[in-house]
Hints:
This protein is an alpha+beta fold. It has 2 helices and 11 strands; from the N terminus they run αββββββαβββββ. The chain has an 11-stranded antiparallel sheet, covered by helices on one side. A hairpin with a 5-residue loop joins β10 and β11. The longest helix is centred in the first third of the chain and has 15 residues. It is globular, with a radius of gyration of 17 Å.
Amino acid sequence: MKKLLLILLMVTLHFTLSVAQSVTRTQHRAAVTTDAVTTGNMTIRKPDYICISTDGGREQLIMDGTKFTMTIGGKKHTTDSKKNVQFDTFHKVLKAVINGQPIPASNELTVSTKNGQKTITITPSGKKRRQMFTSFVLVIDAKTNSFIKLRMNGRKTDYTEYTFK
């Protein structure tokens, strides 16, 4: 009976494991001379929850299952990857990385490995005019699957980049 309880506890901990990392967020806007740089933290809980919070919680990027919530400049934007094609592949990739699974194949992504890092570039298809981001670039440690960098490219040369420590 003790062994059964121990196994049940280990399985429960595996699926609710929380990981925290510090993060630096750089927001680049072509119209602004200086990039906005803030710091904060990232929390990951299996199977598919990520919260990146910077600037004292005023700027957030949250993935909770298929629901994405982004707070930028006090404005909250929400979408669901089931309804938003742009975030569908992004959600599948993040979930695979969190759970240490292989990156799913897709026409919208490329994966390259160099110097112990895996770079995953997601270029969503669909209506470009209405999309918030033109591409996502996720860099992870090839051995540990830990996040190194996430860059979300906007229109023109605008981008938001998270660097994890």
